[in-house]
Amino acid sequence: MPTVTATPAKASQIDTKLILPFINSVKSVLKMMLGVETKIERPRVKSVPGTEYDYSGIISFSGNIVGTVVLSCKKDTAIKLVERFAGSEVPPDTSDFADALGELTNMITGAAKKDLGAAASISVPTVIMGKGHMVARPSDVPCLVIPCVTELGEFAVEISIKTV
Amino acid sequence: MPTVTATPAKASQIDTKLILPFINSVKSVLKMMLGVETKIERPRVKSVPGTEYDYSGIISFSGNIVGTVVLSCKKDTAIKLVERFAGSEVPPDTSDFADALGELTNMITGAAKKDLGAAASISVPTVIMGKGHMVARPSDVPCLVIPCVTELGEFAVEISIKTV
């Protein structure tokens, strides 16, 4: 019988040097690819899997940096982000919609990775589509939620990475 | 404006040598950790993000093997799997529940990785909790769904990896 209860992560375990590249990459990718300004709200530590989203793009790090980065939003926002990104309307819950949201997640994470300057690699994106789902990481890995506000709607970038 | 339409993957692109280790690891981990036999049904290629699940444990590969492995199931099955795994009832939609399902995904993927014999590393698990969500991968990466049947219910292992 395995032990499944992990020690909850503390805010102090989060390395702020790992966070800034993502704030910069979100702002620059959305400005460059979608032509929108992004206002970053106060980041908060996620301790329980509480927030509900309709769409999540997930990318994992490995190498010198391990963990996961998730771009999550409600359906309305996802539809607007994807439409602006693809240049035309894309029906939600299709492969094309998932590809677009995954590629947006990939661009944000890829730009941040360059900035991190570490010998890390990132995975292909996985996209979750489903009204009101929650994203949980192992509770011993700290997770910082960065709320982002744009004219297309609000979304969150959840960063749960550490250097090894 | 980026191109977001990828070429759909074909069944012939799936390397069966990459699949067998997962079939073996599912059977052995469930036998060893949960004491249940697993019947493997006929695998099928997933071309569109069609199947709906309530819980998904996601792990990414990087290194010589890249891609994603997802353990997905309905709520009833997830509750039974986690209860048997943890040795006692665990309330769903909690951190402990996610940790348990993530650890089960990790054990299955870790055992398969050893069998694959490749210089690959696997990420920490991400767990999605939400009724009727769909999991989508980039549509140019082939994905094989392995349906698994046990006395605790049915679940699926979705394998979307390739050697590089």
What does this structure look like?
The structure is a homodimer of 164-residue chains. With 164 residues, chain A is of the alpha+beta class. Chain A has a single domain, classed as Chemotaxis protein chec, CATH 3.40.1550.10. The first copy, chain A, is 30% helix and 34% strand. Chain A is built from three helices and eight strands; from the N terminus they run H-E-E-E-E-H-H-E-E-E-E. In chain A, strands 1, 2, 3, 4, 5, 6, 7 and 8 form an eight-stranded antiparallel beta sheet that branches. The longest helix of chain A has 22 residues. Chain A is globular and about 40 Å long. The N terminus of chain A is likely disordered. Chains A and B meet through strand 3, strand 4, helix 3 and strand 6 of A and strand 3, strand 4, helix 3 and strand 6 of B.
Tally the helices of chain A. Answer: 3
CATH topology of chain A: Chemotaxis protein chec
Could you spell the SSE succession of chain A in H and E letters?
HEEEEHHEEEE
What is the CATH C-level name of chain A? Alpha Beta
The total count of strands of chain A amounts to 8
Overall average pLDDT of chain A: 89
Largest sheet entry of chain A: 8 strands, antiparallel
Span between termini of chain A: 29 Å
Which oligomerization state do the chains in this entry correspond to? homodimer
Q: In total, how many domains does the architecture of chain A comprise?
A: 1
CATH architecture level-2 label of chain A: 3-Layer(aba) Sandwich
Helix content of chain A: 25-40%
